[in-house]
Amino acid sequence: xxxxxxxxxxxxxxxxxxxxxxxxxxxxxxxxxxxxxxxxxxxxxxxxxxxxxxxxxxxxxxxxxxxxxxxxxxxxxxxxxxxxxxxxxxxxxxxxxxxxxxxxxxxxxxxxxxxxxxxxxxxxxxxxxxxxxxxxxxxxxxxxxxxxxxxxxxxxxxxxxxxxxxxxxxxxxxxxxxxxxxxxxxxxxxxxxxxxxxxxxxxxxxxxxxxxxxxxxxxxx
Length: 221
Prior knowledge:
The protein is mainly α. Helices cover 82% and strands 0% of the residues.
């Protein structure tokens, strides 16, 4: 009994670990093959460095008007680059979210294959799909495109509901109901009981007829 509980715990731990590893694999792969836009990061850091150098070149009260004007120009240019970077980041976040949801859907769909024969692997892939789905939904929530965000979250909800139904509801309905302690399906058990009841009725009827014949013969004699 203790070995069975320990084995069950190890299976659960491995399934969770497999799900986390799948999510990490998809996340690292996404950043590797579809990295976020970084073409403005170097320019923004360079402007921040120049601004810091001007502030540190002399005490603040000794900064000339030319220094202050230069700082303001640097701040305006930096803010402009930040706005451009944010505009480029939003489509990337949206595409990344959609890709993550697609991979999550594939993982959960694959988990339905041979789920009874490979329960640990199947559960791990299912958890990985759930974690990846949450990861993808988190990315789309971080954007400010409300209509697109609603569509993606709706798609994630429908996919999760459909795969959950296929995994837990339909598969449970396909398993035959077994009579307790007999190992015989419920339909077969009922048929056997009906057959035995009919045999018992026939025996009782034959016994009653035999008794009536015997009683009649005794009266005639």
